[in-house]
């Protein structure tokens, strides 16, 4: 068992989250990691933070790509295609930022996408369609 109380809490929380809540949490964390890079852009730790944040975001979006590509995915085909196209855009932007890390505002769009999707996942779909 982990001696870090935060790790224990996070693990316990994940066990009781719905899939939507877990996806929202992961997307929020991805956005926060990128936001942290922006906030520390002019510090010596920027490169390490950028690498970590980009890798985390790539893992998150690779997971979504994998899940959305499965033939038995329950989402409508058009929605799956739209999210897959969005993930390709995000991949391209993240590679661009790694190749040319000269402007922290290049991360804005990915941060906004992550936070907006997380917010959408946190809404109750039943409440939106009475």
Can you describe this structure in just a few lines?
This protein is mainly alpha-helical and 130 residues long. It contains six helices and no strands.
Could you characterize the architecture of this molecule?
The chain has a single domain (19-121), classed as Four Helix Bundle (Hemerythrin (Met), subunit A), CATH 1.20.120. 76% of the residues lie in helices and 0% in strands. It starts with a helix and ends with a helix. Helix 2 runs antiparallel to helix 3, helix 2 runs antiparallel to helix 5 and helix 3 packs antiparallel against helix 4 (77-99). By secondary structure, the chain is mainly α. It is built from 6 helices and no strands.
Essential attributes:
130 residues, mainly alpha, Four Helix Bundle (Hemerythrin (Met), subunit A), 6 helices
Topology:
Elements: H1 5-16, H2 19-39, H3 46-69, H4 77-99, H5 108-122, H6 125-128
Helix pairs in contact: 2-3, 2-5, 3-4
Give the number of DSSP strands. 0
- Strand and helix order: HHHHHH
The CATH class designation is: Mainly Alpha
Ends distance? 44 Å
Shape: globular
Q: Quote the CATH topology.
A: Four Helix Bundle (Hemerythrin (Met), subunit A)
What class, by secondary structure content? mainly alpha
- Sheet with the most strands, sense and barrel status: none
* Uncertain segments: none
């Amino acid at each position: 068992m982990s001696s870090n109380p935060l790790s224990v809490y996070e693990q316990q929380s994940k066990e009781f989250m719905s899939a939507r809540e877990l996806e929202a949490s992961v997307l929020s964390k991805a956005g926060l990691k990128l936001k942290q890079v922006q906030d520390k852009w002019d510090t010596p730790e920027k490169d390490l933070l950028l690498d970590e944040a980009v890798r985390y975001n790539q893992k998150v979006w690779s997971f979504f790509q994998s899940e959305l590509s499965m033939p038995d995915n329950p989402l409508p085909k058009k929605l799956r295609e739209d999210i897959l196209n969005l993930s390709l855009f995000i991949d391209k932007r993240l590679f661009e930022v790694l190749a040319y890390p000269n402007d922290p505002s290049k991360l804005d769009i990915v941060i906004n996408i992550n936070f907006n999707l997380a917010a959408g996942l946190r809404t109750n779909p039943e409440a939106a369609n009475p």
